[in-house]
Task: structure prediction
Amino acid sequence: MRDLSKDITVESLKIMKSRRAKIYYVYIIASISKVVYIGFTDSLFKRIKEHKKGSYDNAFSKKYKVNKLVYWEHFYNKKEALDREREMKKYRREKKVKLIEKHNIEWEDLYSNIIEVSKL
Result:
C-alpha cells in the first residue's frame, strides 16, 4: 500500500533502515529557479548525492542544475513507487508546485535530513 506520509522524519527513516526493509523513493529535486525533476530510486541518499555531483554528463539535472531535494515519498513496493513516479511526471507544473509547497513551502533542501540516516 502506498505510504502517503510526506513528512518523513529522520527518526522514522532510522526505524525503517534498522528493519532492513527494502524501501523505494519517488523524489522531486529542484534548481534555484525552481525547475523540477521527478525521479525514482531505492537509495535516496546515493541518488541525490549523484545529482548534486552532476555525475551524468547528459542528464537533465546536470544541464539545468537541478540538485536540491525538495520532496520525497517512500514505498515498500517497487511497482507502487514506479506507478507513483509515472503519475507525478504527468502532473502539470502547478500541481507539482502545490505538492512541494504543501510540505516544504520554502523549497528548502531536505538533503541534510537524509545525511544523518545514511551514516547508520
